[in-house]
User: What shape does this take?
Amino acid sequence: MKLFLISVVIFFCFSASAQKQIVFNSKNLPQADTVWVFTPKKISKKAKLPAVILLHGFSGNYKQWNNIMDAQKYADAYGYILICPDGLYKSWYMNSPAKPDWQYESFFFDELLPKMKTDFPIDPSKICITGLSMGGHGALSLFLKHPELFLSAGSTSGGVNLRDAIGKFGVPELLGNPDKDSDIWLKYSVITNIENLAGNKKPIIFDCGSDDFFYVSNNALKKKCDSLKINATYISQPGSHNSNYWKKSIQQQFDFFQKQILN
Assistant: This one.
């Protein structure tokens, strides 16, 4: 019995050392933001590792991705550092033009990302970002603002056209409750801002299930990427807007990122 207890304690300490939660109290956000970081259990002290930032969906939190995929298992299998921020339920990872205290983009670039690079052994040339639903929109939006900071970006079941969120998902309040015909919906949408990537050869990946309510907009995004000759991989496959789909799609995204990292 004593040997068993000792082994449990050792395993717990070993596992706990591979995970860390950091709480940010930011002037850019209305409340504290918790970021859950997973590092591979077996790494060299001098190693610089790739990182994948995982953004959760609307109404979720920093625990959502781990509940879907077992983030520690992925960190160990791929040898990556996984970073899971909290999107504060409905931030859409944007700088709100209507709410001065909802400036998530500024928080991300000015506070979160620099601290991750300082506190963890991250190779700055091998940072990828992806997310589901609201997080899919957020990942591509952040990538489009500063593609030089990332190796690649992805989205699974992403809300890439904010017009799909008229009247729901917290988007109207962030945008100042605009009229449904207002141009602001598209001004903040990935499907409009994807034009910023024209001429940039950095690869992106996005996917959507055929039974998803964002499916039509993701198909439209693929057509726009093709017309602009953007280096985009699109996966259209059976599935809906749920964790069963994301458990499958995140594996595809990681395999895609691995190709870029090893290239």
User: Anything to note?
Assistant: Residues 243-262 form the longest helix (20 residues). The mean pLDDT is 93. The CA atoms of residues 3 and 9 lie 10 Å apart.
